[in-house]
Amino acid sequence: MADARKDLDALPKAELHLHVEGTLEPELAFELAERNGVDLPYASVEELRRQYDFEDLSSFLELYYATTAVLRGSADFEALTSAYLDRAAAQGLRHVDLFFDPQAHTVRGVPLTAVVEGVRAGLDAAREERGITSTLIMCFLRDRPVAEALELVDAAVAQPGLVDGVGLDSAEVGHPPGLFEEVFARARAAGLHVVAHAGEEAGPEYVREALDVLGVERVDHGIQCLRDPALVERLVRERMPLTVCPFSNVRLRVVGELADHPVLRMLEAGLVVTVNSDDPAYFGGYVGDNFRGLREALGLTDAQAETLARHAVDASFAGPGRRRELHAEINAWAAG
Ligand SMILES: Nc1ncnc2[nH]cnc12
Ligand SMILES: [Zn+2]
């Protein structure tokens, strides 16, 4: 294939759309279930994996929330985070802005501090041992009461350093971004980064609302913007990053198959697209797998891969010095 020769796993990558709960591989789920005395309603790893045939976002979320039941204490969250970082490091991960869903755990009686302590321990170890940098983004479940999100954002604001930013995820249709205006206003006022899922299954109007009402710095997914040329023009003009997740879109039937995925057309249209894995344990691969999938299905060139990697660095919440280092690492890959 023309201009596609380099090792994509060696391309230094920043991942900007990664739910740590979505990295729970069936093997670890069973291990934690046993450790914590949690009964998983599946006989084996294979039987659990066989459930990974989703009709849409909601059918995925049902299983995703159910399997989080095995995560109980901070050691479980540390093991989960470290397992993700091991796998992603082998595919070139150098920085991650990592999402977690506190309400998926607090509703089961797991304290927020246990979740954050465990995830941070995994992130800190990866920084020391591998030089992988990170930020932590707390996502609100948009299909739960706004009052819960307000409580969480107030807790985050009261503990500076607990998290670096906030996001919005879960079942999208019927739960527009505007409902969370006050939550995001409080986060922004406290200097937290702000992102939101919008335009994954719901239409371009959700993307506009995320921009205009929530003031987001990036749009997670955002691919439904393609239904609105004026919105695409605006996103290009404003250089608004979109964290696109190709494998996820195929598995959740937002896109027919990978060969139909619009990510490279979006890139050519001038959109600041990035490639991410979303929930890699459920969707068939990690960030490097997504890049390699795009090469196989769409003929992603080395030059396009480099551009995608640079977009992710520029759109990341890594500091300016770290972003410069990451660009230098990409320069070395491109020159190699
Ligand atoms: N792709 C996705 N969309 C919305 N919420 C999610 N939570 C985990 N993955 C998600
Ligand atoms: Zn997501």
From TrEMBL:
It catalyses: adenine + H2O + H(+) = hypoxanthine + NH4(+). It comes from the Bacteria. Binds 1 zinc ion per subunit. Keywords: Hydrolase, Metal-binding, Nucleotide metabolism, Zinc. This is Adenine deaminase. The record marks 221 as: Important for catalytic activity. InterPro entries: A_deaminase_dom, ADE, Ado/ade_deaminase, Metal_Hydrolase. Catalyzes the hydrolytic deamination of adenine to hypoxanthine. Plays an important role in the purine salvage pathway and in nitrogen catabolism. It comes from Kocuria flava. Zn(2+) binds at residues 17, 19, 197, 278.
